[in-house]
Amino acid sequence: MVDFIxxxxxxxxxxxxxxxxxxxxxxxxxLVDAAxxxxxxxxxxxxxxAEGAARTEELIGLSLSPRYGQDVAASTVERGGSTLVxxxxxxxxxxxxxxxxxxxxxxxxxxxxxxxxxxxxxP
Length: 123
Prior knowledge:
Helix content is about 45%, strand content about 25%. It has about 120 residues and is of the alpha+beta class. Strands 1-2-3 form a three-stranded antiparallel beta sheet. Strand 1 (about 70-80) and strand 2 (about 80-90) form a beta hairpin. The longest helix has about 40 residues, at about 1-45. The protein is elongated. The N and C termini lie far apart (about 75 Å). The model has no long low-confidence stretch (mean pLDDT about 90).
């Protein structure tokens, strides 16, 4: 009986740790996808980085919870001779119980800003 209890506690701890890791990876991947999609939206011709941030917040609210999309920032950056739209998201790390890690997830999405069409080149 004692052996069963000792092994059960160890197995339960391992299962909870794997669930914690799976949940954290799911949230991180969802945030990366939303930030990338928001950056692509903000990089479109006729759009703005602010529209990309709004799209990111919308996607996070639909996929996870609105509380994960409360700290979204979008800007333009120069890298390698190209102008990029960067969408950065800071969200709380999901925790199962009180024993998991605490902290903040920080992810970014980038997209190349579409240049304006030359005059007379069509749409």
